[in-house]
Amino acid sequence: MIDLTDPIVLARLQFAFTISFHIIFPATSIGLASFLAFVHWRWLRTGEEIFLTLFDYWIKPFAVVFGMGVVSGLMMSYEFGTNWSVFSDKAGPVIGPLMGYEVMTAFFVEAGFLGVMLFGRDRVGPRLHFFASFMVAAGTLASAFWILSVNSWMQTPAGYAINEAGQFVPEDWFEIVFNPSFPYRLVHMVFAAYLTTALVIAGTGAFHLLRNNENQPVRKMFSMALWFIAIIAPLQILAGDQHGLNTYEHQPAKVAALEGHFKTRSAAPEYLFGWPNMDTGEIDYAVSIPYLGSWILTHDFHAEIIGLDQFDRQDWPNVPILFWSFRIMVGLGLLFFCLGLMGLVQRFRGRLYDSRLLAVSALLLGPTGYVAVLCGWITTEVGRQPYTIYGLLRTVDSASPVAAPAVATSLIAIVLVYLFIFGLGTVYVLRLLAQMPPDSPAQLSRSLLDQGGRRAVKILKLLKISRGAR
Amino acid sequence: MDFALIWAFILAVSVFVYVALDGFDLGVGILFPLLRDEEERDTAISAIAPVWDGNETWLVLGGGGLLAAFPLAYSVIFPALYVPLIVMLLALIFRGVAFEYRVHSRKRKWFWDRAFFGGSLMAAFSQGIALGAWLQGIEVTGRAYAGGWWDWVSPFSVATGLAVICGYALLGAAWINLKTEGPLQQRIESLIRPLAAGTVGFIVAVSAWTPLLDGRYSLRWFAWPTMLYAVPVPILVGLTVLALWRSIEKGRALRAFFCAEALFLLCYIGLGISVWPDIVPTNITIHEAAAPDKSLAFLLVGAVVMVPAILIYTAAAYWIFRGKVRHGGYHH
Ligand code: HDD
Ligand code: HEM
Ligand code: HEM
Fold first, then answer.
1. Which of A46, A233, A345, B46 has the fewest CB atoms within 10 Å, i.e. is most exposed?
2. What's the pLDDT tens digit per position in B299-321?
3. pLDDT: is A38 or A408 the higher one?
């Protein structure tokens, strides 16, 4: 069970808590920064006011989220030293320079251009202002590149040697940066951030559409977000599948746990639900599809699949957590795919803005991208246990020599401050999103025009009736 | 090439840039209770809103650079300073979100104004404490910190904590003096001299105290020939204070600001002379803590390209937002 007097357990809890908060903000700001740069560019190209309205609308929540991302990230970069000093001493020569590159090529770029993006429209020309938005978006992607390289190296270490002090030292930087799981993780995470943001935008659009489906900026954001979901959701499923195959190759114990395969066998089933029992090595209450498990991992119905019995019991990760976090992520991924599909169907039926079912689904799924992201990360990180550097450095050998009361006190302080600060931040963001974006008269008349046909006639009739009634 | 030395220099520079830049915006926070009304506070916030994020990033570079270039020092110093560092981070959270939150909060703007003040004050205090605790020496066995979790508290570290608060307040006052006009500017201007006097008082006290901490420090300052480097520092401090006085007299706000910064630079150099060549004072030297050349060289390539670029566009951002802040400040 969890022993709350063990400083290592406390440090793990603290890390898990702070990183889980942190990842929510980058997941939003990576997506929103790209979205803002995109509408900014459309505005420069077309001069249509609606894009500027969208930019002005979304930059406010972006500023709040970005601020929260910065302060929670600062905590992360110091936590490696305060809580995981042995790990830092050993892995520093390899991961330190990657994080150094992240600071120089990402954080400074974001920070340097953010001020101009937020406050500079009246002070610089439109082109320079667009350039600032673009650089902020590029910075967020660069950040994801480097930090995911670090994380992937911890999952699938490559290109290193070990020196006499027991430190990991670099041999080949290319192999380190582009370690075997990195490309998969990068693609999957960037898609995840885009998808999560698109869901938030679609959810916001849906919320307003349900009250007023004539507001042009609302329609525009809803339509853009649903295009996005329709395109990215299927790609994300493909990327996730490839990611899983890669993990099966390099970390078979993780995949065995997340699939619930305790025993090595051929023609393995795919468990849909159940409760993995680590004591008996069985899946209790299992609901499964025969043969599918083998097919998913090898594309062959009869292939032999590696189970947890191939590994020492002390090298097992926690099976129930993995089994369920993985299923929640995949389940949500499939739901997002359905939402994208529904959007396409209604669009071609010309009912994108009128379908209540679509709007309600988008609203309900709005915040669930975060759940998928968190479940994905829990799958990745819990699946790496009991190691911090997979197969090489155990978590119990990574922590700082800090007394339990110090870690416990800081953990409590951090939990209280985070819940208060980020809880309120969420309230402020929701308040901003609850405001309807302004709709200008020019846009209203345009909207009457481009609806054409039946709708326009109907509206004209309504206008006449109301005038006649007066 | 001696990569360890180059990196020690780069890190020393980035920590100084951090102190020089975030010092003034933490200082503005420390002076917050002295501002009289909503409008003055909005103006003061606007004087730092476009740049604080960039300023704070130098702290990330300091931490990240230490991990990359001197992993042993990072993993000894951070556990030793566990409590002040966590307090600093939590304090920086409060002051960092206050920028946005005070705009969006309807009834609780006063709360975020206080959070901005408290966060800035605590961040400055814990940075000063961390400095003092580092300077007084850290216990090490093998490759790890060997002390307890309260070792950082001492009269000396509390004194350095107060010194940093006073010094940052000076920088903040010099910045507000530069960026604002009218009654606010006049009131703050009259604070600069007392704050400078206080800062110099702390400098004298801490300088007199440091050699008592460890025989090696006094050897550095009072023995031939190292004394030769050390002697100009106090003389230059005296000259800088003089120049600061005169700039205030003549109303030269920019020059006053740079004089205040120069005071920090001189203390920083004095500190460097004291601890050289250690990175964990009295225990671990720069070369002992350095990562292998392969790590240092790899990151150096990036630093040579990126750091000048960063300095250029940071300067450009300051240029774009140059001049006095108008009442009410910026919006987005
Ligand atoms: C919107 C978010 C989202 C969605 C819809 C999905 N994922 Fe995911 N997944 C992530 C967000 C995510 C993530 C948070 O981004 C992770 C954590 C680490 C990473 O690289 O991506 C992740 C990790 C992750 C891993 C762990 C890899 C490892 O630990 O080595 C696997 C096997 C998958 N995903 C597979 C899938 C599949 C088959 C999906 C199909 C529906 C899927 N994911 C949808
Ligand atoms: C960003 C999303 C991430 C989430 C949600 C996440 C989540 C977690 C969780 C839940 C744990 C605890 C696992 C356990 O103790 O069973 C953990 C541990 C850890 N993770 Fe991550 N992680 C993320 C990213 C990263 C990244 C990018 C890195 C490296 C750069 C990283 C490094 C670590 C380390 C050092 C630990 C501590 C050792 C341990 O207990 O495993 N994590 N993380
Ligand atoms: C997959 C995991 C992660 C991703 C994708 C990620 C991405 C980002 C992004 C995009 C930002 C910019 C600020 C924002 O937009 O909110 C940011 C901020 C930050 N992140 Fe993370 N991060 C991850 C995990 C981590 C970890 C594990 C650390 C700790 C080493 C870390 C350290 C930081 C720091 C220090 C900042 C603040 C930078 C600044 O001052 O601008 N991040 N992160």
1. A46
2. 898 888 888 888 888 888 888 88
3. A38
B146 chain-A contacts, CB cut-off 8 A: 401
Please determine, for residue A454, whether its predicted confidence score (pLDDT) is greater than 70.
no
Q: Which chain A residues are within 8 Å of B59, Cβ to Cβ? A: 74
CB-based contact A16:A182 (threshold 8 Å):
no
List chain A residues with CB under 8 Å of B143.
89, 165
Q: Is the Cβ pair B320, A112 closer than 8 Å? A: no
Task: Write down the pLDDT at residue B280.
Answer: 80
Report ipTM for this prediction: 0.81
Domain spans, chain B: 3-209+285-320
* Number of CB atoms found within 10 A of residue B202's CB: 20
Question: Where does residue A291 fall: left (phi above 0), alpha (psi -120 to 50 degrees), or beta otherwise?
Answer: left
pLDDT (0 to 100) of residue A449: 46
Closest to A394 measured CA to CA, from A83, A154, A136, A129: A154
This prediction's pTM: 0.86
Question: Is residue A70 within 8 angstroms of chain B, CB to CB?
Answer: yes
Q: Which amino acid makes up residue A351?
A: R
Closest CA to B47 of B253, B248, B310: B253
Average pLDDT over residues A38-48: 89
Please report the residues numbered 104 through 133 in chain A whose beta carbons come closer than 8 angstroms to any beta carbon of chain B.
Answer: 104-105, 107-108, 110-116, 118-121, 123-124
3-state SS assignment for residue A267: coil
- Whether the CB of A241 sits within 6 Å of ligand 1: yes
CB under 8 A, 24+ apart: contacts of A46-53: A49/A440, A49/A442, A49/A443, A50/A216, A50/A217, A50/A220, A50/A443, A53/A217, A53/A437, A53/A438, A53/A439, A53/A440, A53/A443
Note the pLDDT tens digit of each residue in B119-135. Answer: 999 999 999 999 988 88
Supply the pLDDT for residue B312.
87
Look at phi and psi of residue B241 and say left if phi exceeds 0, alpha if psi is from -120 to 50, else beta: alpha
Whether B227 shows a pLDDT value over 80: the answer reads no
The answer, for A370 touching chain B at a CB cutoff of 8 Å, is no
Going from the Cα of A99 to the center of ligand 3, the distance in angstroms, rounded, reads 10
Chain A (405-444) residues lying within 8 Å, Cβ to Cβ, of chain B:
405-406, 410, 413-414, 417, 421, 424-425, 428, 431-432
* DSSP code, position B321: T
